[in-house]
Amino acid sequence: MKVSVLIIGGAGYIGSHVVRLLQQNGFKTVVYDNLSTGHRELVEGDFIFGDILDKGKLSAVFEEYDFDIIIHLAAKSIISESMQKPLMYYENNLSGTVNILKLMREYGVKRIIFSSTASVYGNPRKIPITENDEPKPDSVYGFSKLAIERMIADVSSVDGFSYVILRYFNAAGADFSGTIGELHIPETHLIPRVLDVAIGDSPYIEVFGTDYDTPDGTCIRDYVHVLDVAEIHMLALEWLLSDVEGGQIFNVGSGHGFSVLDIIEIARKITGKDIPIKESQRREGDPPKLVASPEKLKRFFGWEPKYSDPETIIRTAWEWHKGKRLEIVKKRKLIGEPL
Q1: 7, 182, 209, 288: which is deepest, by most CB within 10 A?
Q2: Looking at the structure, do residues 134 and 281 belong to the same domain, yes or no?
Q3: Partners of 291 in the β-ladder
Q4: Is 163 considered catalytic here?
């Protein structure tokens, strides 16, 4: 019998790649998503429209299927928005997760993978960041994710859940087929914003701060290919299915940092476009450097990133951006659907 996996938030960017990889490896997947940031076009197989705040609808899904494991990717995740709308973030991220955990207890599902974030570290004291570094979030988003981590650990200690918490750094890139990739409206991530300029949707890329204590004055970030991220989910899932107890926390990054200007220059080479820059003031809360230490992940699972060099990341993102992504955006604008 196939292992059955409920992917909550599975129509989103990372979720759609996780779903595809699991399907390719023989897992039975069911996606539950309210499409607030996800897209129905990115998901094949069983899909149910619903919100994690709608416990009744979510309960009906648990009633219909017999799940072996839950993958929870449904938290709201824009830092600036979280500072402007804290109650919306606390309600969705915390209350929604309470609903998920209650239903797991009610229906006897004992395994969960949770997508957390590097934002739990805030402005780190040292680079690279390890899982032993003390979390000090400086945004509502980061606080809400850290609270969920604690919630899962507390429930695990009482109810015997096993769990994996994945602290994402900067997932980027797209599937090599070019049929699924990153599509956020509005877009806040650097690489798709740079590619918006390359494709002609934006006149320039705004660079927020050029006076940081880094070699070129711009922020440095750790970019990890979304296919490498998806593989980590599958490794975590297989580990949880081996009837382990308790849980583990992992940083999900490549271990290498690239500046904003590095990314723009690589994008210029790959796209053949000029990509003008507009320099702006720093954004509040942007640390100069965020780079993961993925050594625990490598030791524990024997994982090595296969596609996380910036050239591969940007090349796959560009194929998606100028192909299927552009097709979806044009279609929706034509028929008047919200993006």
Answers
A1: 7
A2: no
A3: none
A4: no
